[in-house]
Specification:
The protein is α/β, with parallel strands linked by helices. It is 42% helix and 16% strand. It has 2 domains: 30-116, Rossmann fold, CATH 3.40.50.10860; 141-263, Rossmann fold (3-Layer(aba) Sandwich). The chain has helices spanning 8-30, 45-60, 76-88, 107-112, 125-132, 141-152, 172-181, 196-200, 245-249, 262-283, and strands at residues 4-5, 35-41, 64-70, 94-97, 161-165, 185-189, 205-208, 226-229, 233-235, 238-240, 254-255. Helix 1 runs parallel beside helix 10. The chain binds NADP nicotinamide-adenine-dinucleotide phosphate. NADP nicotinamide-adenine-dinucleotide phosphate is lined by residues 142, 165-168, 170-172, 189-193, 196, 209-212, 230-233, 262-263, 266.
Length: 285
């Protein structure tokens, strides 16, 4: 039997329903809505399209959303001044800086300029530290989304063997900490890992976040495994994942498609965190 699909739209729709009900109650109580500011530098097509989708999605849920589009050669000082303004703007609960930034900008310096209380995409070192030390903080939206997808399968994580391919700050590293919290046993793989297929064959949960289309083959999958394909590469105008979907689906128990897997949930989780920041702000008024 082919693997069951983990459909991002379905997972995201459930989360949006929960948020919509809460937003309505909060608006009735306070007359306020959550505010999210997104900063994008330059015109890289994938980033522009992601930010446009954030804008549409926030508007449809009644958020106050501001998109700050800056030229590719913006000076670091100017970008930092904008972040300072947004840090002090009482109508803005969350700020996200779209990455990657152009090379002349120091990404660490820019992310450290964010107020950690408004860093809803979990990019500030304070929030990374909280994740490391099991404290409540903001989590990178992609890693957060992957956890929601695994919850959707209703399969327990404890005691399971999870293999993550990719060790980036937005996927592999934060996800490994989230999975450890749930008592999974982790193997994190990267470009220096030897015999990746053999490691993958032991995985009850396999997450591929590489950025190499079709890299993970069907015979790398353990029968019945949960397979989450994070990778997105554009080929001839089509989005292609890291996993050979057709071959993997015939072996796995659950699998997420590309497109229609992680992507739709990521923006929802960004809004989720912005709503959390908003609730904290109005609780403190
Ligand atoms: P990244 O920073 O480029 O990281 C890629 C990781 O893959 C690195 O850790 C790299 O290892 C590892 N890798 C590369 N070649 C490998 C190989 N042959 N074997 C094993 N590991 C290998 O990328 P990212 O930002 O995490 O994103 C990964 C993919 O996910 C991209 O396709 C991106 O577009 C997609 N993505 C999708 C969403 C979504 O919402 N759907 C969100 C974020 C990212 P080294 O560390 O050794 O270089």
């Amino acid at each position: 039997m082919p693997a069951k699909l983990i459909k991002g739209d379905e997972v995201a729709a459930r989360l949006r329903e929960e948020m919509a009900a809460e937003l309505e109650d909060l608006y009735e109580e306070t007359g306020r809505v959550p505010g999210l500011a997104v900063i994008i530098v330059g015109e890289e097509p994938a980033s522009l399209s992601y930010v446009t989708n954030i804008e549409k999605s926030c508007v449809s849920l009644g958020f106050n959303v501001q998109i700050h589009r800056l030229p590719v050669d913006v000076a670091e000082g100017e970008l930092r001044r904008l972040i300072d303004e947004l840090n002090f703007n009482s109508k803005i609960d969350g700020i996200m800086v779209q990455l990657p930034l152009p090379e002349h900008l120091n990404t660490h310096v820019i992310l450290e300029a964010l107020d950690p209380e408004k860093d809803v995409d979990g990019a500030h070192p304070v929030n990374m530290g909280k994740l490391f030390s099991d404290e409540k903080g903001y989590i990178p939206s992609t890693a957060h989304s992957i956890m929601r997808m695994i919850e959707f399968t209703r399969q327990p994580l404890y005691g399971k063997s999870a293999v993550l391919i990719g060790r980036s700050n937005i996927v592999g590293k934060p996800l490994s900490l989230l999975m450890l919290r749930r008592n999974a046993s982790l193997t994190i793989c990267h470009s220096y890992t030897e015999d990746l297929p053999a490691i993958c064959r032991e995985a009850d949960i396999l997450v591929a976040a590489i950025g190499k289309p079709g890299y993970v083959k069907g015979d790398w999958i353990k029968p019945g495994a949960i397979v989450i394909d994070v990778g997105v590469t554009q080929i001839d105008g089509k989005m292609v994942g890291d996993v050979d979907f057709a071959a993997a689906r015939s072996v796995a128990g659950w699998i997420s498609p590309v497109p229609g897997g992680v992507g739709p949930i990521t923006i929802t989780m960004l809004k989720w965190s912005t709503l959390e920041a908003f609730k904290k702000r109005i609780a403190g008024l």
